[in-house]
Every structure is written in structure tokens, then in C-alpha cells.
Amino acid sequence: MNRNILLVDDEVAFLLPMRKMLHGPGIRVDTAETYEKAIELLKAADYDAVIADIRLGGILSREGLAILDFIKGRDGNTKVIIMTGFGGPDVMKEAYHLKADYYFEKPVSYKTLSLALSELGVTDHENA
Q1: pLDDT digit string (tens) for 10-43?
Q2: Which letter, b or e, does each residue of 111-125 get, where b requires 16 or more Cβ atoms within 10 Å of its Cβ?
Q3: Distance (Å, rounded) from C-alpha 83 to C-alpha 106?
Q4: Residue 58 belongs to domain with CATH number
Q5: What residues make up the domain containing 13?
Q6: Neighbours of 22 (CB within 10 A)
Q7: What phi, psi does 4 have (nearest 5°)?
Q8: Is residue 125 part of a domain?
Q9: What pTM does this model have?
Q10: How many separate domains does the chain show?
């Protein structure tokens, strides 16, 4: 099973260790620190799942939701997990309205993301 995952977060301290943990046999993990880089990668490759932070330090302060909207507008098969450290009921409602598959408030553990990816059929949690 070859799977492609895109991890989007402006916090390198989260991005790099999570990439290393999610990467494995048959699983490629690309990373992006900005909205622009994420869109560039999404236009160039197909992803089974995208894990995106909502706030990427840009002018929108909700770039992750814009990424979610972009993905679901193009390909309903890509699974999207949204994370945020600045959430709440309204943000969660908006994420699910835009068809996020999961919404988590930070901090999010590797185990939580691994289980979510497994439940979405992207990875096999037993081997993750």
C-alpha cells in the first residue's frame, strides 16, 4: 500500500518530528510550512490525506480552512484532518461544514493522528 500524506504546519518543532513518526514503509510524508507551499504541492501531486493547522502565520489566520476548502472543491476522496491551537465551537463547526474528516485542538499526539489516519483507511495503525 503506497500512501501519500501532506502535513501542513508553520511550527517546525511539530512538523519535522511528526513527519518522521508518520513516515514508514509505503507511506510518503511531504511537508509545507505555508499556505502557498501547500497549494503548490496539492496541485502537483495526489494525497490520500492532508493534516493541516488552521493558522499558518499568514494574513488570513485561517489558511488551513482555505486549504480544506481547496481540497474538497477539487477531490472529495482526499481525507483532511484539521488541527488548531486557537479553536472553539465556531471554528470546529466551520471545519466540519467545509467537510473536514477530523478536527483536533492542539496539542495533538502522534497516537491521535495515527488512529485517525487508520480509521480513515489511509494507514494501518497496527503497522504505523
Answers
A1: 999 989 999 999 998 999 999 999 999 999 999 9
A2: eebbebbeeeebbee
A3: 6
A4: 3.40.50.2300
A5: 3-109
A6: 22
A7: -120, 130
A8: no
A9: 0.92
A10: 1
Instruction: Please report where in the chains the cell 511550527 appears, as a residue.
Output: 11
Does residue 5 contact residue 26 with C-beta atoms inside 8 Å? no
Residue 49 placed within a domain: yes
∠ at Cα 74 (80, 6), nearest 5°? Answer: 40
The amino acid present at 34, given as its one-letter code, is T
- 87: cell is 479553536
Q: Which residues contact 118 (CB under 8 A, 6 or more apart)?
A: 124, 125, 128
> What distance lies between CA 70 and its chain's CA centroid?
13
Query: Residue by residue, what is the 3-state secondary structure of 16-68?
Result: HHHHHHHCECCEEEEEECCHHHHHHHHHHCCCCEEEEECCCCCCCCCHHHHHH
The SS3 of residue 101 is coil
* Confidence label for 128 from pLDDT (cuts 50, 70 and 90): very low
